[in-house]
Design brief:
Elements (H helix, E strand, L loop, with lengths): L2 E6 L7 H17 L3 E6 L8 H4 L2 E4 L8 H13 L4 E4 L1 H13 L7 E2 L9 E5 L8 E6 L4 H6 L3 E5 L4 E3 L4 H4 L5 E6 L4 E5 L6 E4 L14 H10 L3
Helix pairs in contact: 1-7, 3-4
Length: about 230
Amino acid sequence: MTLSIALLGEYTPTFPPHLATNAAIEHAKAALGLEINADWVSTEDIDQTLFERYSGLWIAPGSPYKNMDKTLSAIRHARENNIPCFGTCGGFQHMILEYARNVLGFKDAQHAEYDPYASSLFISQLACSLAGRQLPLTFKPGSRVAEIYGASTAGEQYYCNFGINPNYIEVLKQGSLLITGADVEGEIRVIEWPDHPFFIGTLFVPQARSTPEQPHPLVSAFLRAVAKL
């Protein structure tokens, strides 16, 4: 049986991160010799059959999504049921929201793209946009992401204008979520859920750096988790 993953987001064929997502999956599939289908699924089309059809989720860049609540519900189901889940850029931001709402108990945790005046604004506009920039990262020793990269540092590209609100960083550190990657200023750039086959979010867009000759290690690790290799 051919496995399938859902790319949750509002696919836009002219948006570079979406094209890079498609390409990076093909690079990794070819290198690993895997047969895995990847389907774009609009967030408004998420329903109870999603996990009957798909063995993994990639929460894609390009928010705001058409249906935030359905997206957060899908992320929660993947987190709680050991289903591989990868979030990049906007996907990372929504993984933070899901954690804030369903683990930390901030039921009104919000994203500035949807409601800039919310009282619990966990995701806020960055003081300095990261869109189009490549910046260095440091990974926590012993983390899953460091293991996947086989390194403690990397340089990655960004397409985002939003990130974690600095006012909530200490709150985010109080639960089970692991903060395993940061930029040179210590800002959170990678998160992981412990003891999970693959539950990783990155504010950067790793797929932008994938090539046929060098598939991105995070994309390859995600597909391997879906295939249970």
